[in-house]
Design brief:
Glucose Oxidase, domain 1, globular, 212 residues, seven-stranded mixed barrel, 5 helices
Amino acid sequence: MRKFLDLTLMLEDGTRALDLDPITFVNKYRSIDQDGYNLSQVILSSHVGTHIDAPYHFLEQGATLDRVPLDRLIGNARLLDFSYKKAKELITRKEIESYNSVISCDDIIVLRTDWYKKFPSHEYGYDNPNVSTEAVKYLIEKKIKMLAVESPTLNWEDNPNAHKILLSAGILLVEGLAYLDKINTETFTFYAIPLKIKDIDGFPVRAFAEIA
């Protein structure tokens, strides 16, 4: 029997990942008591919580999220466990290369660090383990389709260069995953589904795993 596991951080009124990012507003615009129905207005950053980066996030001529084909948002995932990494430590090329035999073309590579447990603290936003630029280059060589991480950004030490290198290769990036420690298998089907908004650079997603 198939099992589905939610990998998405909860958003609510006041949520933000980084200190200078816009705050999430959830406004009860209509109510059953006054209007006969509930309707909410939500204002949020395109990169709050669990979200996806389209190439346009850092590349002026890059594809916007509405132009990303649906089959790029779903695929075979491989979970790599780096939960032993401490704050600000690098995930190196050599460490990723140790998984060489199990990383295939068009895989979605998911990196577990258990960093979601820090959300929504200041530490969560700025002290996360970083994926080294050389590790990013290696994953490009392996021709993966997507990289997914628990931290709110890929690499503070080489930002935005690491992002640009990854996105310019046509590889999507999901940041802010959660609950990867609940997955008891190394392979599964991964979904990261955003809304379809014209000319957007990224957007929060409902990320989840389908486990056979």
